[in-house]
Amino acid sequence: MSVYDNPDFFPPRDTNNGGPNPRASIGGRDTAQQIGAPSATISSEETLFDFGTTALLNPNNTTEGTDAANKTLRNKLEASESSGRPDAEITLDDGRKFVGKLQFGEARLKDYQKATGTKFSQEEFKNNLALQDRVAAWHLNDIDKAIDALGEQAKAYNRDGLRATAHISGKTGMKKFVQSKGKYNPQDALGTSAQAYYDKFSGAV
Questions:
Q1: What's the domain range around 11?
Q2: What is the pTM of this model?
Q3: How many domains would you assign to the chain?
Q4: pLDDT tens digit string along 107-155?
Q5: Contact call for residues 14 and 200 (beta carbons, < 8 A)
């Protein structure tokens, strides 16, 4: 049995009742005793479903007002992804690493850097809580633009549910999920589906 299939190390996301997330580790490559946070965050360029879109958005979208509006959802996502731990880290079998409260991969961080003209390493990101918060705010604003671009197609869906779907399956995955009316429902490397995250964060479950 792969360690990723062992419930002792990778319990279902919904079993974490606010306590320490056993899937969050501190630094280093993951081992059976040191496994990172539960979900590898999806990038627009680097995703567990191999979607290939890139976000090039205005950095001015990251404002305190918008950030505050998304804060409740951010807190819920952070609890699900890492138990809110900024030092959480997971390395997948293919070598990709995802870090921080929202478990960002290198490609998504590059999206942010390209959009904002900044430069930092994944390790620097993990060790900088203020930077994690700025990237998180930009990330959700980026997703909001993708939802808005769907127009009438998205109006039948809960917005927080779609934000969570885009977080786990990428903006392209969220778009396909909406346009297929949920028939397009991929799973990430840890077995969590787009529909499961939609239901969880839309309040359907």
A1: 3-150
A2: 0.68
A3: 1
A4: 999 999 999 999 999 999 999 999 999 999 999 999 999 999 999 999 9
A5: yes
